[in-house]
Design brief:
The complex is a heterotrimer. Chain B is of the alpha+beta class. Helix content of chain B is 54%, strand content 15%. Helix content of chain C is 28%, strand content 28%. Chains A and C meet through helix 3, helix 4, strand 9, strand 11 and strand 14 of A and helix 3, helix 4, strand 7, strand 8 and strand 9 of C.
Chain lengths: 261, 396, 333
């Protein structure tokens, strides 16, 4: 079996500055981490892996993304691919999905594709389902855990707005993962970090993946960002430090005065 | 300044995650409970930190000294009490010595249990009569057929309780041919669960998550396989373990000091006095600048010392240069870190003096390092000797 | 682009009733339709959904598309997306509004990619600008807002965050045109199926995602027992009970109450945070609440940086006093 895991490297913090000329965030000098939901996706893949199965970790990025892919190799992926090309930059989710489709076609047959349900920075949660639609395979979203593949089908426990459901699908398909509250991301141990250095690591550009360049990057994006700006600032709150009874009295006065209640 | 490899950065990130998530939140509790929780030791073992300098054949990772330093640095940032730092550094340094000079049999028996976190591995050369003058120690080791019999005592040793209760032992030194003085000492592994070992325990000032104590050694029998290096040649190899430990200590002191400075910086940026942040006062920000500079220098020198150890291992270094740079790196490590942390406590006022403040624990931990693994005075002796020669610096 | 017109609202049901967010989407759709001079249509997909037509007849809807079948009783991506894609390809809407619920966020991107068109997720505001739908959403954990447009393709799709837009007010009755869509699903060709549903929302726990007032407890609550103090206040205010991840992980309260980055993002009128320090992950889940009241023992807790009103103190003493004060106040009205 082959499982492909799509991961994204994100800034460690969302407290970033923006460049209003380009409508982009300034990430220079900001530490990066693997998108936490993507590490979960990788660990889901690892949880059902059997002897002989191959797990490929793939990411769209630049040379700095290597550390995230090396982490995936150290956690248990067998092979890593970095998709690095200027033409990939500034993709919206549709452009991203198209790049991934071309890369997946280049990799070849697959049984499962795992992604995190959404990313820590932009958080739209769209790439997984868009990828599934373009690949014309089923999708399962908000998946907390997966069961092993049996007779060409797989079952997963997915969150719903009422609780959970167990859903079954034929393979291949795309699964997007969201952590259960018990999830503790694994920390790559030293011997595996050292072994990871020897695993295959490829860097592909547009020519390598032979896709339709018009569908990548800014050229292929259907959504345009018109403006990126700070939300209206909340006024500083009124903090009451008196003893309980007068404090509650004061709060009630303020809430009534401000017509909150 | 040293540059780290990609692999070292990945290792750094793993240890940092572990130290920040699993150690930092419970650090002060370790002192209250006087132990490192089993889950933390298991976690360190699963991460591959314990016995990491031993060969992979015995369950270690064969790590080089610089990488061992990266691990020590991150542990120091997460553990304000220094307990896990000590636990780690004695295993890394004396594990290194044991790996290099121990017998196959002993390594196969002991390392797997150390790397799994089941057994403790430490160092015990100090005696109640003295530590600096190793040759002045009274412990003896006598051949007895295929075994050896050890008599004597050790004192102010880390990890006695851990080894006595959980298994494991200490790398120890004793006189095999007392009439030969330094030329008749033997290094060996002493299991603390042996019959004839009677432990005593001491409360020391800091690092309370790891025990401190001593033990008397009364006709303890050890097998030949536990001898480390050649008989009677122990004095010539034991410095390798000390040097490894000293260089790690330099990095640990720098990291602990810099972490405290970070705490202090956050505090003085927020706390106001007379309407302005403490940070605006020159008395505060100049001191911050001085301590920061000294600790960054210390960290650099610590890594240089670790690199010298690696180069010597590869056959590219010079024995005496290594000895000198290691001594240089440890000479002021504890003092400079203590001075910095002392000011951080001062900046925080009464809170700095309370047991809830992590920096007071860090001060107490770091204070030990002008004594442990070779005192500050010994470091000065070594550097003076390297500069002036043995004749001018001999005390005899 | 010229062929595409009208604003559609995908209606979602929950436990057999129309979800509140659907009325919010209709409210917004009507606002937008005034500017674009288009009609507002609703799309009802499910089983026995024609019973809801009545409900929409007083909201100024022009058309109701209905696809009813037993097989559509439970949401499955492959069934709903097939129906909706066929519908959109036939009737060419200009805009489709989906709720940013788990169903909406599963369905909308599938539709978007299948129709080769753009989608913006979790919008908190919509407007019309130069013939395009101007979409506003939060990014970077809520630290920034992004205005986006989909200038080159149609339809323009968005998922909209619940509890932000104003609900549609009933106006005079009109008779929307009802268009029945045949269900073209072949049950033998389905690739997915639901094996089991597990409801964790106990029916008497008010769900947080659409609550107007939430009283929330964090690590500072200390125990399952103590959550009763929070529940008391919630009862008096007819509010939902929320929780930080710490409380859920400690087992004091159900995960369905979790507010935060890996729980639910909420936007109530009033959010009362008790014993919650205000980690970034929690703030992402509630900081766009209209009014935030914080109660915490620690004066340095980050929650005090985002609240409108705060009391530094022990919730065990403060909340019962607040509950009593609220009870008295509300019985006066």
């Amino acid at each position: 079996m082959r499982f492909i895991v799509c991961v994204k490297q994100v800034p460690e913090t969302n407290d970033l500055k923006i460049d209003q000329n380009t409508n982009k965030t300034v990430t220079e000098g900001v530490s990066t981490i693997i998108n936490p939901f993507d590490q979960l996706a990788l660990e889901q893949a690892i949880s059902i892996r059997k002897e002989g199965d191959e797990i490929v970790a793939m990411s769209i990025g630049d040379p700095k993304t290597k550390s995230t892919l090396m982490r995936c190799l150290a956690l248990g992926a067998d092979r890593a691919i970095l998709l690095d090309d200027e033409l990939f930059q500034d993709s919206d989710t549709f452009g991203t999905a198209n790049i991934l489709v071309s890369a997946i076609n280049k990799i070849g047959d697959y049984d499962l594709i795992f992604c995190g349900n959404s990313s820590f920075d932009t958080g739209s949660g769209q790439v997984g389902p868009e990828l599934a639609a373009l690949l014309k395979v089923p999708q399962m979203t908000y998946v907390e855990s997966v069961d092993e593949i049996k007779e060409g089908k797989i079952r997963a426990k997915a969150q719903t707005d009422e609780g959970y459901r167990i859903i079954e699908s034929t393979i291949p398909l795309v699964i997007t993962g969201i952590p259960p509250s018990s999830f503790q991301p694994s920390i790559p141990p030293l011997p595996k970090i050292m072994a990871a250095q020897k695993k295959p690591y490829d860097v592909w550009n547009t020519d390598d993946i032979e896709g339709d360049k018009n569908k990548f990057g800014a050229a292929g994006s259907l959504i345009k960002i018109v403006k990126l700006y700070e939300p209206p600032k909340r006024e500083e709150g009124i903090i009451i430090t008196e003893d309980p009874e007068p404090a509650v009295e004061k709060l009630m006065e303020l809430l009534i005065k401000d017509k909150v209640i | 300044m040293i540059e780290f490899t990609e692999e070292q950065e990945l290792i750094r990130q793993s240890v940092s995650e572990f130290a920040q998530k699993r150690i930092a939140p419970i650090a002060l509790d370790m002192e209250k409970n006087k132990e490192i929780p089993k889950e933390v030791i298991k976690g360190m073992a699963e991460l591959g930190l314990l016995g990491c300098t031993a060969d992979p054949a015995y369950g270690g990772s064969g790590l080089d000294a610089v990488t061992a330093g990266v691990i020590a640095e991150e542990l120091a940032k997460g553990d304000c009490t220094g307990s896990t730092c000590v636990f780690y550094l004695v295993q890394a340094s004396w594990g290194y010595l044991f790996n290099k000079y121990g017998t196959e049999e002993a390594k196969k028996e002991i390392f797997p249990k150390v790397t799994s976190g089941d057994w403790f591995l430490g160092i015990a050369t100090t005696e109640s009569g003295g530590g600096t003058d190793v040759v002045g120690g009274k412990t003896t080791i006598k051949k007895d057929g295929d075994d050896f019999i050890v008599n004597g005592e050790k004192m102010y040793i880390s990890g006695v309780r851990e080894a006595v209760n959980g298994g494991g032992g200490h790398v120890t030194i004793g006189h095999q041919s007392p009439e030969l003085g330094s030329r008749g000492m033997t290094v060996f592994y002493l299991p603390l669960t042996s019959e004839g070992i009677t432990p005593t325990y001491i409360e020391d000032l800091g690092r309370e998550g790891i025990s401190c104590g001593g033990f008397s050694i009364d006709n303890v029998k050890i097998p030949k396989k536990y001898i480390i290096g050649e008989e009677n040649k122990g004095f010539y190899i034991i410095h390798e373990g000390y040097e490894y430990a000293r260089a790690l200590i330099a990095v640990i002191c720098a990291a602990a000091g810099l972490k405290s400075l970070e705490n202090g910086m956050n505090y003085v940026k927020e706390r106001t006095v007379f309407g302005k942040p403490l940070a605006k006062f020159q008395e505060i920000n100049f001191r911050l600048a001085e301590h920061y500079t000294k600790l960054e220098m210390l960290k650099s020198l610590g890594y240089e010392a670790l690199r010298a150890i690696d180069l010597e291992q590869e056959g590219k270094g010079d024995r005496f240069e290594t000895s000198k740079i290691v001594a240089m790196s440890k000479m002021f490590a504890s003092d400079w870190a203590c001075e910095a942390i002392n000011d951080v406590i001062q900046w925080q006022g009464a809170f700095g003096y309370s047991r809830e403040c992590p920096d007071q624990a860090a001060w107490r931990a770091v204070r030990s390092f002008s004594l442990a693994e070779g005192t500050r005075e010994v470091m000065k002796m070594i550097v003076a000797r390297e500069l002036l020669g043995k004749e001018l610096t001999s005390y005899k | 682009m010229g062929d595409h017109k009208n604003i559609w609202v995908f209606v979602e049901f929950k436990a057999g009733v129309v979800r509140g967010v659907s009325l919010e989407l209709i409210g917004k759709a009507k606002e937008l339709a005034e500017k674009t001079k288009e009609s507002v249509c609703v799309v009802l997909i499910g089983n026995n959904v024609s019973q809801f037509c009545e409900e929409f007849s007083s909201h100024g809807i022009d058309q109701i598309f209905i696809c009813e079948d037993e097989i559509l009783k439970e949401y499955l991506t492959e069934t709903y997306s097939k129906i909706l894609v066929e519908l959109a390809e036939k009737y060419l809407p200009d805009i489709i509004l989906f709720p940013a619920t788990k169903i909406g966020r599963d369905l909308a991107p599938r539709i978007a990619a299948t129709l080769n068109t753009g989608l913006t997720a979790d919008c908190i505001d919509l407007d019309i600008q130069e013939g395009n739908l101007l979409q506003t959403r939060t990014v970077y954990g809520g630290n920034y807002l992004a205005d986006t447009i989909c200038p080159n393709t149609r339809p323009q799709l968005v998922t909209v965050r619940p509890n932000v837009m104003d609900k549609s007010e009933p106006t005079e009755n009109n008779q929307p045109e009802i268009i029945e869509i045949p269900c073209t699903i072949d049950p033998t060709k389905l690739k997915t199926k639901i094996i089991e549903k597990i409801e964790t929302n106990v029916s008497d726990i008010k769900p947080i995602d659409e609550a107007e007032i939430i009283v929330s407890g964090g690590r500072g609550i200390g125990s399952k027992e103590n959550f009763k103090i929070i529940e008391e206040l919630a009862n008096v205010l007819n509010a939902a009970v929320g929780a930080s991840r710490a409380s859920v992980d400690a087992g004091w309260i159900s995960k369905s109450c979790q507010v935060g980055q890996s729980g639910t993002v909420v936007c109530p009128n009033i959010y009362i945070a008790c014993g919650i320090s205000g980690t970034t992950q929690h703030l992402v889940g509630m900081k766009s609440s209209k009014k935030i009241i914080a109660i915490n023992k620690d004066p340095n807790a980050p929650i005090f940086d985002v609240c409108d009103y705060g009391i530094v103190g022990d919730f065990k003493t403060i909340i019962p006093l607040l509950t009593e004060a609220m009870r008295q106040r509300l019985s006066q009205d």
